[in-house]
Design goal:
There is one protein chain. With about 450 residues, this protein is an all-alpha fold. The chain has a single domain, classed as Hydantoin permease, CATH 1.10.4160.10. A hairpin with an 8-residue loop joins strand 1 and strand 2.
Length: about 450
Amino acid sequence: MSAESELVLPVDTGPITFPDGMEARLRDRLRLERLRTGRQSLARRLALGFALVGPGLLVMLGDNDAGGVITYAQTGATYGLSLFIPLMIPLGFIAYLVQEMTIRLGAVTRRGHAEMIWKRYGAFWGAFSLVDLVVANVLTLMTEFIGIRVASEIFHISYLVTIPAAFAFVVSILLFLKYASWERVSLFVAAFNLVFVPLALASHPDWAAIGRTIAGSGWVLPGGLFSASFLILVSANIGTTIAPWQLFFQQSCVVDKGLLPRDIRASRRDLMLGVTGMVLVAIAIIVIAGQYLHGLPNASALSDDSVLAGIGKELGQGAMAVFALGLVEAGLIASIVITASTAWAIGEAFNVPRSINVSPRRSLIFYGPAIVGTAIAAAVLMLPHVPVGFLNLTVQVIATVFMPAAMLFLLMLLNDRELLGEHVNSPLRNALSVGVMVMLIVCNSLYGITTVFPNAL
């Protein structure tokens, strides 16, 4: 039985009761309506714009997680200032294409991604997608705590302190804040993701070499297009740009924020802002690593600690400390959003109260499994020996493997006119989305072939 709270309206109609969590969502919607009405001054328009910001920035800056930071560093260290720099731009457009569909689906149906799959395609496919998500999320969370663990050692703080502290922070804001406050705290943390951009500028990059790279010249691919190292880094970079948890997170975030079809345009701007930040950070990290770590022995196997050591040696201890802070932030913001995506997905699948506005004692199934999953990931990283580099790249590739199935469900939902009416996908969007799915399948297949049969290609 849901808890109920009372909201007394100004008109004397008596108290009206709402399900637990609904009152907070209605207050958020009323605040937006107040900003929309009345004289539209510059201050009011800015306030409305800021109020609608959130899901897009969080999903894309959260995508630049600790595992992503190390993947970009491994990429730059392996291939230098090469094709992976301009490759980030089309990957950003792919991320926008995929995530924009979740905005429309959430705003129009007002249902989360897991709930839509479960109700539209049945329990089997609902359970299939949920298990894939939870397993991938726990593995990904391990890479976040790897980043926090290694970076904390730069500041001579034991990971036995920092990992539990990070876990406690993620759990506390999920349990004790309402959605609006949770979102603002998360955005504050996410803003520090941009610290890599000034760090890259301060490293005095070779702008001429970067320009040649963007223009398409000077690309060097040791081993060729079909080498295992190239294919695994391509798959890993794709996996850190688009991942299944992002679909579940952004759609549920749109629903919990209470956005409506009239907010789709503003949500697209929010998403594009997030994509721009993601691409800038990714390029900044590749530039830093490409300029100062390229050519190191076993560059593709670099782990968090060797990346930090290399930056400290080349750029100084101050730069190493800033990079370490960025790594902690990347792990922290990703842990926040991935834990939330697990909570929303499980709450939707089991049809229980599923909002960050709901009090914990009223929805243990919503909060409990997500917290347990994050606790498992944190506990593994408190063990003394963890294969950091192998685990990081493996998790990113797993995300790429899971993504085609997740996109198939998304595409089917976005072509359901009964659900979306005029907001269904256009033929162009369908063609582009199918192209992304084919690209993912080809990358996965080529990587599998080169791994099992190294001389086949």
